[in-house]
Design brief:
Elements: H1 15-18, H2 22-63, E1 73-75, E2 80-81, H3 83-115, H4 118-130, H5 136-150, H6 164-188, H7 192-200, H8 205-216, H9 218-233, H10 237-242, E3 249-250, H11 262-270, H12 282-311
Antiparallel strand pairs: 1-2, 1-3
C-alpha cells in the first residue's frame, strides 16, 4: 500500500517581513525629511522676500503723494518719485541690449546647431559661454572705457561718456550667451527627420533653416528671448556704472544721453547712507521700484509661458 506523504504548510509572510531592514528604513525617513526641509526652506525664503517687499511697498503707496509719482524726474531725496523716468530708462537699455544681442546670439545659435562641425562646436560654444561668467562690474567698466569712446561717441560729437546706449551694449554682452545657448538647444531638439524631408524636396540649407528648423523651434526661441529680456531688465552693475545717473535723473528718452534704470535707482538708494538721508519715504521707494520690477518680470513670464504652450510643436 502506497504510503501517503503529507507536508505541513510553512509559515506565511507577515507585514514585518515586507517592511525591510529597519536601519535602511530609518535612513530613508531621514533623507526624505531633509529633502522636504530643503524644499520647504526655499518656499519660506521666497515667501519672506515677497512679504518684506509687499510690506514696505504698502507703506510707500499708502503715504506718498501720488502727484509726485508722475512728475519730471526721479529724485527720492527731494521727495520726487517719477516712476516713468525709471521705466523708460530701463526699457531703453533693455531694447538696445536685445537689439544687439538678439541677432548675434540667434546667429551664433544657428551656426552652432546647423553649420558647425562637432570639433568647431566644442571650441566655440564654451568660448561664448565664458561671457556669461564675466563679472558684470568688469563689463560695466569695459562699456565705460571702450564701448562709449570707441563706438557711441563716434555717432555724435559732444556725446557724454556715460550713456544709456553704452549701458545697453554692455548688457548685450552679458545676454549673448543666453540667447545663443538656449537657441542652439531649441534648434538641436528639432527632429532630424524634418531636415531630411526638406532636403529630399530639394531645399537648400538656408531654406531648411529658415522654413523648417526655426518655425519648429519657435517655442524655444521665444523662451530664449524672454530669459534674455529678464536678464537685461534686471542687470544692475553695468547700468549703474555706464548709464551715467545714480542719485537722480530727469526724464530722458535719448539713448545717447545719461539715464537711470530701476535697478540702478535701487542700488543708489540702498548704498551708503541713502537709506536714512532725505525724505521720509526714500528708503520705501526702493521697495516700490522693486515691486514694479517684480510684477513686470512675473507678468512677462506668465505671458511667455502661455505663448510657448500655444505654439509648441510636439513630435
Amino acid at each position: 500500500m502506497a504510503q501517503l506523504i503529507t507536508s505541513q504548510p510553512g509559515p506565511g509572510l507577515t507585514s514585518a517581513d515586507l517592511r525591510g531592514d529597519p536601519r535602511r528604513m530609518r535612513k530613508e525617513t531621514v533623507v526624505r525629511g531633509l529633502l522636504f526641509a530643503a524644499a520647504a526652506t526655499s518656499i519660506i525664503i521666497s515667501g519672506l522676500i515677497v512679504y518684506s517687499l509687499v510690506r514696505e511697498t504698502w507703506t510707500f503707496v499708502s503715504q506718498v503723494d501720488w502727484a509726485l509719482v508722475w512728475g519730471d524726474g526721479w529724485f527720492p531725496r527731494r521727495g520726487q518719485y517719477d516712476i516713468k523716468t525709471l521705466l523708460v530708462g530701463s526699457l531703453i537699455v533693455t531694447v538696445v541690449g536685445l537689439a544687439v544681442a538678439g541677432p548675434i546670439g540667434l546667429g551664433a545659435g544657428i551656426y552652432l546647431s546647423e553649420y558647425a562641425s562637432a570639433r568647431v562646436r566644442k571650441v566655440i560654444k564654451p568660448t561664448i559661454e565664458v561671457l556669461a561668467g564675466v563679472p558684470s562690474v568688469v563689463v560695466g567698466f569695459f562699456a565705460l572705457t571702450f564701448i562709449s569712446p570707441e563706438i557711441i561717441q563716434r555717432f555724435r560729437e559732444a556725446t557724454p561718456q556715460q550713456t544709456m546706449a553704452a549701458a545697453g551694449i554692455g548688457v548685450a554682452i552679458l545676454i549673448i550667451p543666453l540667447v545663443a545657448s538656449i537657441s542652439e538647444d531649441a534648434m538641436r531638439s528639432v527632429p532630424r527627420s524634418l531636415r531630411e524631408a526638406s532636403y529630399g524636396l530639394g531645399a537648400r540649407k538656408v531654406t531648411t533653416v529658415g522654413k523648417v528648423v526655426l518655425p519648429a523651434a519657435v517655442s524655444g526661441l521665444v523662451a530664449a528671448f524672454i530669459v534674455a529680456f529678464s536678464r537685461a531688465i534686471g542687470e544692475t552693475m553695468v547700468v549703474f556704472i555706464a548709464a551715467g545717473k545714480s542719485g537722480g535723473s530727469l526724464f530722458e528718452t535719448n539713448p545717447l544721453e545719461p539715464g537711470l534704470t530701476m535697478t540702478a535707482a535701487m542700488a543708489s538708494i540702498a548704498s551708503g547712507t541713502d537709506s536714512v538721508v532725505g525724505e521720509a519715504l526714500t528708503f520705501q521707494s526702493l521697495f516700490f521700484v522693486g515691486a514694479i520690477l517684480f510684477v513686470i518680470t512675473l507678468a512677462l513670464n506668465i505671458v511667455a509661458d502661455r505663448f510657448v504652450r500655444r505654439v509648441r510643436e510636439r513630435y
